[in-house]
Design brief:
This protein has 527 residues and is an alpha/beta fold. The chain is built from 19 helices and 18 strands. α1 packs parallel to α10 and α8 crosses α13. It binds flavin-adenine dinucleotide.
Length: 527
């Protein structure tokens, strides 16, 4: 993959990609296939950025998807274009939400596909069929919207009006123009059902459901549009398998990938740019006709020589915990753990709990009851486990409403947040999760936790924001300037020879490769 000893100084490439995250690799693959000379410079020892697998626990083979873990937004057309040998598998459970009502443990099961057990579960929890009817109607409407938006993601940006005219005005209002909380409260009555709907608006996005900025609506839309279905699937072999396939596609097409190559400056001029990077021993410089920035826009501005601006720095808000278990825990509700943990298991995500947690975090406190969700990858894809005793499983926790600012203010906040995440799970278990956690070679529990500061330190995602910054609508404003190919594809910067190809591009958020594809198309269209 890496021509580690070649001295590239003095060379000029058609395209230099700054950052070897999955999006940078997608750009490299498309452009090298089109016959352009492409160099990818990645500061870490491995490619993939937040889409990687790692053996996180000493003496344990299991390769966990360390940061991102499920795939929805990667278009099948992109995977086919690049000939990716990647299998995405459906989970048999969409979600399970354990609840305790009147002191009695129960839960809400949503199967995939939804069948009679889902309808029965809604009935048991809510006392009638009304909530399930509302649920089906809402998601049917959202699917209609997704069918309009999804096919445009690999095309030049449509305008907002062009899409709006194809969609029922009611769902357009509910998802696009009014704070999502209004639709959730109007369409659903049950606190748990409302919360299950609302969580998709809060993944990696610190907002209330009523936020007038509508960042929660944009986050919701991204979570529901993937391939027109919004289904989140399990990458067989973990996220590393996705990145490895992309790196192969790029190198087989002729791109050069240089790891251990941190870029320190991009000096743009009329005909292109010079890119300074360091290989650990010395500084080198390479020329580029076009630079594609896989780094976040906030990082790019620094590389272009602008001062670091703390006021515009993104603020990540998630807590990710990876766990290796000796056995799956039993639930107090009596549901089969292999069913409950196969999908997204919602914890403390009732609508009222989400609102309370947001208010506490906004006031500078770690939420007393921390909302989050867990899922077991190895139930759907045991291939990541490696050589482990029978019964071993992985568990991934993704916590909401833990903005980076909480951890800046209080050195104990990380331990507090982890303890509260575990407490929210333990509330629903027969035995505490601690009794199921595997041990590493040194006898330590196999648990690793990543707050936004850890993600920033590991991956240079500013503020640990999982999307490089808050998400944009996946279309252009009606009056947007769409004169250049870069503007038409939503990948422009203030500098003509530098385009965005990462999560911070319009339509870039999540593991999708869409930003990488679109930046490559903008480069090709400009030639
Ligand atoms: C904890 C967590 C959980 C997530 N869960 C999901 C999920 O389940 N599903 C999903 O779709 N999305 C998820 N996301 C979001 C998703 O992972 C990201 O949006 C996506 O991976 C971004 O990809 P990218 O290629 O644009 O950027 P990145 O993955 O950020 O890659 C950028 C690359 O640039 C490199 N770089 C940075 N600075 C420099 C420099 N100066 N010089 C050279 N290289 C540099 C970095 O090392 C990195 O490799 C999650 C993210 C996190 C952090």
């Amino acid at each position: 993959m890496t021509s580690a000893d070649a001295d590239l100084t003095g060379t000029t490439y058609d395209v230099v990609v700054v950052g070897g995250g999955h999006n940078g690799l997608v750009s490299a693959a498309y452009l090298a296939r089109a016959g352009l000379s492409v160099l990818v410079l990645e500061r870490l020892a491995t490619t993939g950025g937040a889409a990687v697998s790692a053996a996180a626990f000493p003496g344990r083979d299991t390769r966990l998807s360390r940061y991102s873990y499920l795939v929805s937004l990667m278009p099948e057309a992109l995977m086919a274009d690049l000939g990716l040998d990647v299998t995405l598998v459906s989970r048999s459970t969409a979600s399970y939400t354990p609840v305790v009502r009147d002191g009695r443990p129960g839960g809400l099961l949503v199967e995939r596909p939804e069948g009679p057990a889902t309808a029965a579960s809604f009935r048991d929890l809510t006392g009638s069929d009304d909530e399930y009817a509302a649920w089906r109607e809402f998601y049917a409407d959202v699917t209609d919207l997704a069918h309009v938006v999804a096919p445009t993601l690999l095309e030049p940006l449509p305008t907002e009006r062009a899409l709006r005219d194809q969609v029922d005005p009611g769902i357009w209002r509910d998802v696009v123009t009014r704070p999502l909380g209004e639709a959730v409260e109007r369409r659903f009555r049950d606190d748990t059902v409302r919360g299950v709907v609302a969580t998709d608006a809060l993944i990696g996005t610190f907002a209330s459901l009523d936020d007038p900025s509508l960042i929660q609506n944009r986050c919701f839309l991204y979570h529901l549009v993937g391939n027109g279905t919004g289904e989140w699937r399990v990458p067989v072999g973990g996220m590393g398998a996705v990145t490895d396939a992309l790196a192969r596609a790029a190198t087989e097409a002729g791109a050069t990938i240089r790891t251990g190559a941190g870029v320190s400056a991009i000096r743009a001029h009329d005909d292109g740019a010079e890119v300074d990077w360091h290989d650990g021993e010395r500084r080198r410089t390479v020329g580029a006709r076009t630079v594609l920035a896989n780094v976040a826009p906030w990082v790019l501005r620094i590389l272009l020589g602008q001062p670091e601006d703390p006021a515009t720095k993104p603020v990540g808000s998630q807590l990710k915990i990876n766990v290796l278990l000796d056995r799956l825990p039993r639930l107090r509700s009596g549901v089969d753990p292999a069913v409950a943990f196969a999908g997204t298991l919602h914890l403390a995500e009732d609508y009222s709990q989400l609102a309370r947690a947001h208010a506490e975090a906004a006031a500078g406190q770690v939420p007393t009851v921390l909302p989050g969700e867990v899922y077991c990858h190895s139930l759907t894809d045991p291939s990541i486990l490696g050589d482990v005793p029978d019964g071993t499983h992985t568990l991934t926790y993704f916590g909401l409403h833990t903005p980076a600012t909480l951890f800046d203010a209080d050195p104990d906040a990380k331990a507090t947040a982890v303890a509260r995440a575990i407490a929210s799970l333990d509330e629903h278990l027969v035995d505490p999760i601690e009794s199921c956690v595997a041990r590493d070679a040194a006898g330590n529990p196999c648990i690793e936790a990543k707050i936004p500061q850890d993600v920033e330190r590991d991956l240079a995602m500013p503020g640990g924001h999982i999307f490089h910054g808050d998400l944009d609508w996946p279309w252009a404003a009606n009056r947007a300037r769409l004169d250049t190919p870069a503007q038409q594809w939503g990948v422009q910067t203030d500098v003509e020879s530098v385009l965005l190809c990462g999560s911070g591009a319009r339509r870039g958020g999540a593991v999708s490769g869409i930003a990488g594809h679109n930046a490559a198309q903008a480069v090709l269209a400009a030639r």
